[in-house]
Amino acid sequence: MKTIGSIAVILLILTAAFQAAEKKSPAQEASAIPNPQIDYPGFLKDADKVGALREKRRITEKQFIEMMQDPDTLILDARSAEKYARLHIRGAKNLSLPDMTEADLAKVIPTKNTRVLIYCNNNFDKAPVAFPAKGGRLSLNIFTFNTLYGYGYTNVYELGPFIDITKSILPFTGTKQ
User: Fold this and answer.
1) Where would one find coiled-coil regions in this protein (predicted)?
2) Which of 22, 77, 86, 108 is the most exposed place for a label (fewest CB within 10 A)?
3) How far out from the chain centre does Cα 65 lie?
């Protein structure tokens, strides 16, 4: 009788284990919903490559200023048009991240080999209306760098430091200087 009880318990455990293995997590269920316009695994693959490249392409304020003097270099501001209008680095072109498509990027950036300098909200302190801080891992620079790379723009450099805007040597312009 003990043997039959033990076997029954083992069978119940095995049945529960198999049922649990067959049950899909919400993430697995979501990934089973086809959408050829969304490629999260591709994004993760690119993000690994971009992470290594990005670390080599983070530059100082002084390097940013030196690079922006080159007429073949483009400064890209991916913040909203409203934030850009308030305050931006002089000479920067604005294309809000949500509006970045292959066609719109091609209108703003002359070639995929053009050197592009980027900066974001999280680069500047003491200007919260024009440059509201985001969570560190949600920084606009991260998404902008990934997006540009994904569209084939690999000559991208990112302003690296956190700068007190009242002490910055960068040239700013806008409605709320």
Assistant:
1) none
2) 22
3) 23
What 136-144 contacts at long range (C-beta under 8 Å, 24+ apart), as own/partner pairs, is 140/78, 140/79, 140/97, 142/54, 143/78, 143/97, 144/76, 144/78, 144/97, 144/100, 144/118, 144/120
- Measuring CA to CA, which residue among 62, 174, 166, 79 is closest to residue 131? 79
Domain borders along the chain are 41-173
Contact between 124 and 83 under an 8 Å Cβ cutoff? The reply is no
pLDDT, position 159 = 98
Q: For residues 133 and 123, what is the distance between their CA atoms, to the nearest angstrom?
A: 8
pLDDT at 140: 94
> Would you state the pLDDT for residue 93?
98
- CA distances to 44, 96, 113, 120, 130 from 123, in Å: 25, 17, 25, 6, 12
Residues 36, 44: contact at Cβ < 8 Å? no
User: What is the C-alpha separation between 47 and 41, in angstroms, rounded?
Assistant: 10
| Segment 22-48 mean pLDDT | 80
The two tokens of residue 152 are 């084939």
